[in-house]
Design a protein that fits this description.
Helix content is 33%, strand content 28%. The chain is α/β, with parallel strands linked by helices and 365 residues long.
């Protein structure tokens, strides 16, 4: 595939094999609730965690994957960058939401040059926006075997106004954006750095306002989907049911505060809300089972701030009938305990997954 320049979307399959002196971008995950930053280095013994941190965003600063208050987001990112004393200005971000379309399509086998010339016209029938208003990228998954004359191609489109808004905001923060990814594929990058690619796994990242689902089969994404449901939904349900503050509801949700005599009602709220999430996950699993009848999902890998909800891993495992693992994206990384508190790393690990996946991306030459 040709070397596409920013602001084109960069899919994870474009990732180069990392040389030991290769510079990596700083991973910057901009969610609706908080900004997360992760900086990694790669050596002969694998990844080294250099820095990580997060900062909460004001309510409504980012909604549905779109910047609503870019100046305030830029200020918070710049302040967090300064607090973490990160000197590298090249950053990788990811986006999601209604303005991003990810679609697997099946096309005749072509050379890279032919595919690049053809993809723009092909994309028009799959993109619900004016084709001139989006940035396009694609990746030939090379699924054709033997004499097969067709192959799967992953197509990604993102609205220019949304991408440009993020790029301008980051420049305001004094940073140099070099990679724009998609949340589901940043999740996949983190997975690739920690798990065997021979397994089939459902990657589920639950943020404050959205859930990313990416089903991986033998190292290839077979389905990538964003769902507008998140852990804030559960917090608000608890808050409204018990007439308590948002902070109190959050503490009960995460198991930091006891529900006491309200435990039975809490379990009802939990079951009602999380069942909606399970239904979306089951739809994705059913899609995989229908299209890949000879394959089996061996585990669900759960990440995001929602992975901290007390008992959610057990609930998902019981409802889906598949073992659930809480993702620690730093499990195979070297961490200098003299510079970064290991307990803080363990605490932050699940919600740092997208930032970590972005932090494994080499900076373009």
């Amino acid at each position: 595939m040709g070397k596409l320049k920013l602001p084109d979307i960069k899919l994870p399959q474009l990732k180069l094999s990392a040389a030991k002196k290769e510079k990596l971008a700083v991973g910057l995950d901009i969610g609706s609730h908080a900004v997360k930053i992760c900086q990694m280095a790669r050596g002969v013994d694998g990844y080294h965690l250099l820095s990580l941190g997060s900062a909460q965003l004001p309510e409504g600063a980012v909604e549905d994957g779109m910047l609503q208050n870019p100046d305030e987001v830029a200020r918070i990112i710049a302040a967090l960058y300064k607090d973490l004393q990160i000197k590298e200005k090249k950053v990788a971000i990811s986006i999601s939401g209604y303005s991003v379309i990810v679609k697997k399509i099946n096309l005749a086998v072509m050379t890279e040059t032919e595919l690049e010339a053809h993809i723009h016209a092909e994309a028009e029938q799959y993109i619900p926006f004016d084709i001139d208003d989006v940035y396009l990228d694609f990746q030939d998954l090379k699924t054709n075997t033997g004499n097969a004359d067709r192959t799967d191609v992953m197509l990604v489109a993102a609205k220019k106004e949304v991408v440009d808004g993020y790029l301008n905001m980051l420049r305001t923060a004094g940073l140099k954006p070099v990679i724009v990814d998609v949340d589901a594929f940043a999740l996949e990058n983190a997975y690739e750095a920690n798990f065997s690619l021979e397994e089939n796994a459902a990657l589920i990242d639950i943020g404050a306002s959205k859930m990313n689902i990416n089903i991986i089969s033998h190292g290839v994404s077979t389905l990538a989907r964003d769902i507008v449901l998140g852990s804030r939904q559960l917090t608000e349900q608890i808050q409204n049911r018990f007439d308590i503050s948002l902070e109190e509801a959050e503490a009960i949700k995460l198991g930091r505060a006891e529900a006491g005599e309200r435990q039975a009602v809490l379990e009802e709220v939990f079951t009602n809300t999380c069942t909606q999430w399970v239904m979306e996950i089951k739809r994705a699993l059913d899609f995989f089972a229908t299209n890949y009848p000879d394959e089996t999902i061996t585990k669900i890998i759960l990440s995001g701030g929602g992975a901290r909800i007390k008992g959610i891993d057990r609930f998902f495992a019981e409802e889906c009938g598949i073992p659930v693992v809480i993702f620690n994206p730093f499990a195979n990384a070297q961490v200098d305990s003299r510079k970064i508190n290991p307990e803080y790393v363990r605490h932050m690990a699940p919600e740092m997954t997208l930032a970590t996946g972005l932090a494994t991306r080499p900076t373009p030459l």
